[in-house]
Amino acid sequence: MPPTSQRGKASGSTGVKVKAEKTTRSRVQKTETDSEDPCEGSSQHQNDEYTDGRDHDDEEEDEEGEDDGSTRGNKRQRVNANGDARSSRAPTEEEDDDDEQPAQNLPKMKTLPRDVDGFIPGSIVRIQLHNFVTYDYVEFRPGPYLNMIVGPNGTGKSSIACAIALGLNFSPKILGRASELNAFVKNGTDAGYIEIELKGPAGRGNLIIRRNLSGKDRKSSFTLNGQPATGKEVTAKMAELNVQVENLWYVDSALTSKLLLKTEQPSSSFLPQDKVSSFAAMTPQQLLIETQKAAGDPNLSSWFETLKEEGKHLKVSAQKLKDDQAMVKQMRERNENIERDVERFREREKLEKEIEELDVFIPFTLYRELRVQYIEAKEQQRVTHKRMMRLKSTNEPAHKLERKLDADAKKASEKREQQKKAMVAKASALKKKQGESDKLDGEADNLMNKLSSLKKNEKDRQRNIKTKEAELEKIQEELDRPPPQLPDPADLAEEQKQINLEKLALNRDTEEHNTAMREVVEKKMSAKRAAEDARRQMQQLDTVDSKKLGLLRKWDLDTHDAVLWLRRNKDKFKMEVLEPPILSVTVKDPNYAALVEAGFAGVQMRTIVAQCREDLNTLNHYVNDTTQALGRRVRVPTWHRPHVEKLPPPPFSPQQMNDLGFEGYIYDYIEHPQGMENYLQSEMNLHRIPITRNPRIDIGRAMEYMGNVGGGVFINGTTYNTVTRSRYGRKAVGNMTRDIPPARNFDVPPVDTGEMNRLHSIVQQNEMETAQADEEKARIQLLLDEATQKDKTLRQRIDVVKSRREAIKREQERIQRFQSKLKKSKSDLEALRNAPSAEEERGRLKKKLMDISKKRIKIARDYTALAEDIYREQIECTNAGLQHAQALCNHAALKALCAVKDEKYTKASAEFAEADKKYRALKDQSHAVLKETLELIGDNDELRDKMHAVEDARTQYDKECAAAKAAGRKAPDPEGVDLRTSEELSVELEDRKAQLETMMAANPGVVEEYENRKRSIEQLDRTVEGTEEKIRRHNKKIKMHKDQWLPALQKLVGSIGARFSAAFERIGCAGEIRIREDEDFEQWAIEIYVKFRDHEKLQLLTGQRQSGGERSLTTILYLMSLTEEARAPFSLVDEINQGMDQRAERMVHNSMVEVTCKEDSAQYFLITPKLLTDLNYHERMKVLCVNNGEWLPEERSLGNMMNMIEGFVQRSRASRGAHSA
């Protein structure tokens, strides 16, 4: 075995010969294995990946700028999640509003001019590797145009791609391999390096970049032209050559479909191996973003980001404007609805205010009118009083005598009245004596009657005494009668207490029994329900469809949910949409289930089949393209192809099938719905896969027969055979086999024994619990019956005790009743026996009669004396009456005489009385009206001021009128002066009250609501104006940026589209690139439409509609078109032809040669493990063959393939020359 220090040697610029050691690089393999899981190891190496491309000084500089909370944190420009170089600080509202001019445009990067040697500055001139992956040492020089790196798998072609990436300070993560730099150092060595020579600008030297790698840690270092340098210095130097190290095209390892990293114009393209297929999985929106980053004006991305941001702001503002305008409209409508109520309320409020003022003005006006009358009445009263007093003084002597006679008459009248009162008093005393005498006369009559009936009363008393004595004897006999036999009350009380205790204990036991009974019943019902649920689940386990649905649900929840949705929405489809084969296809013979299932791939087993294109589009729209069906984004496999009239024939004839021992084709052993045959035959070719359960057939003959028809598949026993025929050399037949597992989908899953046993045990357990509950229930029922019987016995005992107590009570009541009767009878008998005798009573009555007679004699004497006094008083009274009559006559005669003399005085006095009465009445009335007015005004200063203003104006007007009248002038104009009378005001008040009564009352809260809403409307109007201004500014900024962005984007997409369409046209297909516009800039997208067959229409490229080869072909052609537009100094793609058929691979190769070998084309690297025959080549392209193996010679001068080719050519020419000589 050769030593591990073997080396390879390059032969100038024409080829590569390298030698690799046989030892496998376990470290790289382990790292690659670990990186297969995108979730594992990504976070722990994230920082390492970021620092791999920089030296230690760079790390310290970054750490200084990332101090949390520092005011310097926003000074540095960082790369955001989208790869855009922007400040991490979000713009403020003021900055956003003031930004009326587009951001400063980035300078348009241009490809530097090509040098005389054909290389564009920035192109790779030389690559040298030492202890890198599988290489000990290698050096080669690529050409300035297309460089095709060819070599078998495992010889280290992709390691060259890794070397370019790492040597130019790319991050290892884009490679999809190891994430640590030391994993790329050759196993068993401590260090290695990568040296890349880049073409310098014309007239200047080349740039030689060396990256030294350590096998012990993750550190690395750089040199530029032999001098130490940092990663930033390397990046800066390459930026001068338009090689932006962070502007790679890549598809990340998590297959999230990214295409570009930064916003600057990319100047190098890099597509690692096995990442092409995920390009088609990108959304059209992502494709637009990444395309803008990849090519065209360098400001496209920044313009687009501005448009998206402004679009978001515009959308928010527009929605806010819409909401605010709707709110304003709603609030205005609500105010309009209550505006009539508000006007009515205000009109009513105005009327009420007018009524309030009139209520004050009326009495105040009345007071003013009464005051005028009062002044006039006061003057009249003074005049009449003066005339009356003058006449009165003239007649004063006669009136003085008249007054004296009047006084004499009054004295006589008083004396007469006194005499009359004395007469009345004595008459009353006389009458009283008469009444006393009559009363004593009545008492004497009563005593006489009692004397006459005294004997009869004595006889009645003796009889009553005997009756009472007999009654006493009977009562005593009742009391002396012995009582009945009754129990002792104390014993009864003790017995009752004992019964109560027993009753309490019995109730407690009964309640416990009832509680236990309820628990048992509930336990029984719960057990019954659980048993029924288990039985129902056992029935469901035995249903075939439910078994299959359950299996599908465990396998693919999205397809399971889509099938359930399909069953509920059959009306949305024109024809029947067929459920996946796992549900709709059944195997006729279960013995063939595993063989049949082997003919189905996993995705084929889960594919929903549509019978027409319209139904397929409908299905994809609801299920895959939108969230309308399942409420989430899913990817459910669907299928439709036009019906194929002529299917490819089976590979074997019936005779061959019989000779080989095949029992039939898969299609013969299945049953399916009508319409599924097109999918099963044209898509899956089940009619061309022969099967047999016999594992011992002649495999050689079967391979031979299958190879004769170009290859195919057959199944024997548990072996799946894939027969292929080589297209090269002798076209040998090969067979690749694999074991088929037991059927899982078509073998209807048996009943889950474990689950069935579990459910059966649940049923048994619950039935047992039910039986136990019944037994417990019966036992408790016996206890309850026993308690009921005890309760009945206790109740009977209680009734006996109660009856005994009532008997004792009745006896006690009887004794008490007779004792009361005995006591009363004794008392009555004692009273009768103690009553006085008849003689004693007679003496007592006679004595009373004597006393009464004496009193009557005394009263008669007093009566006689009073009668005499009355007679004398009558005489005096008559004299006083005569004197009084004389005095009255004298006064009347003098008064008549004075009346004749006082006729004028009387008239004057009457006039004065009338004037005084009127004066006083007006005075009281005006005071009352003034008081009423002041009470009505109260604390209402506004009303008081208004009243004073009216009064002042009226007073001033009256003064002017008086002055004009005195001067003989015309009265002044009363304009502005309230001249209404109280009556006119009263009429007006009644009119206002009538209007108020006819006006419906309004809720005072309506006005407050109206005013509050009116203020809110005004505020919202101001808000709407501000929002409209914001929208205007947003629209202005959008138009300004769109006017720059859209033409540049259309130019870029048009250029890419023209190249893309031309590329498709060259291979006999059709392709278009379209810009999908939308109101929302977030939804703007680039859509790729392709057509690979003449009968098809252009269809949108998706991850589901096209085959893998079609997607790969589309991806490569788009990237090539994009590469032409990008004009990078160099580009690299690794094994892009994987998954293509020969036709597509040939077309892509020829197209790539044509594009990359033009005079103005940049450097291009194409890595491929194989080449087809008869491909197009160009004199500008360079083929680098990787000659890598275990047994290469140690000397670097040996084994140079180009030297061998040139030697062969020279010998051939020399031989031809010798022959011709």
Automatic annotation (TrEMBL):
Where is there biased composition of kind Acidic residues?
Answer: 57-68
* SUPFAM superfamilies in UniProt: P-loop containing nucleoside triphosphate hydrolases
| Coiled-coil parts of chain | 321-348, 517-544, 766-835, 905-1044
Highest taxon listed in the record's lineage: Eukaryota
Domain RecF/RecN/SMC N-terminal: from-to ranges:
124-1170
* One Pfam family here: SMC_N
The protein's name is Structural maintenance of chromosomes protein 5
> Which InterPro entries does the UniProt entry name for this protein?
P-loop_NTPase, RecF/RecN/SMC_N
Instruction: Say yes or no: keyword Coiled coil present.
Output: yes
**Gene Ontology molecular function:** ATP hydrolysis activity; single-stranded DNA binding
Q: Name one GO cellular component term.
A: nucleus
Q: Name the source organism.
A: Candolleomyces aberdarensis
